[in-house]
């Protein structure tokens, strides 16, 4: 069977790492990189570090509004799908690349498989939520990371076949964990001690594009006592620079660094006192590593992390964040997102799709 996979940004490289190698053992894969994230910090290092095959096609489509970007991706994908005539198109997560890949395939009447189907924050103001809902409703095979995701899809009565496979990011977190635990280089470089710093990430449009929200984010980060390490996403860096806020963060002792490779980031995450984030993937990785998480959003699609007490939603409320950072953690940490073998199940489900 021939599968055309569409990826484009950092979390999708992590997800593809769990599937592509296994997929290529049994089937042919054409990997298309839309270029949504194109710089080395967010792209090349992941391809090298996680052993993702080199993409067969690269579009270099970054920048612009969500709608513009999605439409340029659609226009670029149509001829590729027509020329390659895959048996299925595989998409991951909730980005513009996900929706463009799904829609281009569905219009060409090629079956669409969606990994990380069924996730919902129920916040339609998030561009990611629109991408999730639309992609799920045009997919033929919906591969879910959790029972909650399966339940969301049943409630929405999606047309495609729904399967619980577990979360592919768990596969990679488990695989990389020994390397991350053996590597304390990133802590030494940033001058922090194990268990004595907070690891922060922020890049959601809802937090960094609006100047008032960006100022509240900076106020929150600078209110945290003790060292805070902030690998700065390019989008966030651009907004902070435009608002003249970089100096304020640095003056308050926030340790800014460029975005890190997966292993270096996992090394920092697994030894942090707590994680402060607006990322979807990082909330989950904190849970898997048993690190308390405080999420700078008022909704999450990873609801189980909150229900289990390992994650607290504080939006950009500094006082709530400080309370949440000092909370007592639960004794239990059940297996919420599968056993680390989701990639195998994705490949098996794709094979069944071909009949
Ligand atoms: N990540 C990384 N380096 C960093 C920050 C994050 O490797 O400096 C990884 C992180 O471990 C996770 C993924 O990037 O696997 C999350 O991506 P992001 O926060 O960009 O996207 P989201 O999950 O919010 O869609």
Folded structure, characterized:
- Pfam families: Epimerase_2.
- Strands 3-2-1-4-5-6-7 form a seven-stranded parallel sheet, sandwiched between helices. A six-stranded parallel sheet has the order 10-9-8-11-12-13, with helices on both faces.
- The chain has two domains: 2-167 and 339-354, 3-Layer(aba) Sandwich (Rossmann fold), CATH 3.40.50.2000; 178-325, Rossmann fold, CATH 3.40.50.
- It is built from 17 helices and 13 strands.
- It is globular.
- The protein is 49% helix and 15% strand.
- It is of the alpha/beta class and 355 residues long.
- Uridine-5'-diphosphate binds at residues 10-11, 14, 201, 203, 231, 259-260, 262, 265, 279-282, 285.
